[in-house]
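User: Hi! I'm a student and our assignment asks us to look at how structure tokens line up with a sequence. Could you show me two examples?

Assistant: Happy to help. In each example below, the sequence comes first and the structure tokens follow. Example one:
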Amino acid sequence: MAIAGNRVNWRRELPGAGKARFPGRSGLVRSEVKVGLPGAQPKLLARKIDGKFVAGLTQEELHARYDNCVDLVEQLTAYTRRKLAAMPDTTLDDLLPRVRKGAENKGWDVSSLEMDWIFSHVADRLGRAQ
């Protein structure tokens, strides 16, 4: 989120350093696993799945997270439209931060990068609809 004057720009580009874009899935951004474990020996945080060590998410897990994010975009877009209709004096720039704060307080399993992606898509959809 970038702030210009008193307006919030929800359509910002996410930083690309240390991130991988999900191919063919509309640019969902995921962060690389960076964990520090104590001790003198170097360590790698990984899981053993089907006889292979996997660091980070599997493709299936990433697909599920993407589908969850797309579903949240749909639900939050509809919710924000209803709120804008119910409160005609409220602007999209005023309402989106409140909707995001409410979504973050729900305790959903959504990272901050995923939340950025979700709300940039919600803003795009609502910006095109108006």
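Example two works the same way, sequence first and then tokens:
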Amino acid sequence: MNEKEAREHFRAGVHYLQDIEGERYEEAYAEFKAAYALSKSPKVLGNIALCAMKLERDGEAIELYTRYLREVSDIATDERAQIERDLETLKASAAPVSITTEAMRSPYGNPASASWSCRSRHRR
């Protein structure tokens, strides 16, 4: 674990959230993800979840906030209450989606390719 590098990424994430021109959630998200990858500290999960929520990645925000609440025991009471409210809102607005596809067959009975090519003739 490279603790120094993880801290640098974490500080960069905080800096992006405190940008005087406005929060930069995409950049902060990337920095917090890098910090977590290096440190595996569950305390970073709350920061990643916040950015995911602001970036409308609701499924990921729900998963990360849930893990954060479960894995971090010393969350301030007001922060925990806010996260629980955010989770309720996220869960109420999220809808599970399932996509099922069937294999396509060409007119000749063979599986069809996902990419098609065509030829065209130019007439003069």
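Here is something you could point out in your write-up. The CA atoms of residues 58 and 117 lie 38 Å apart.
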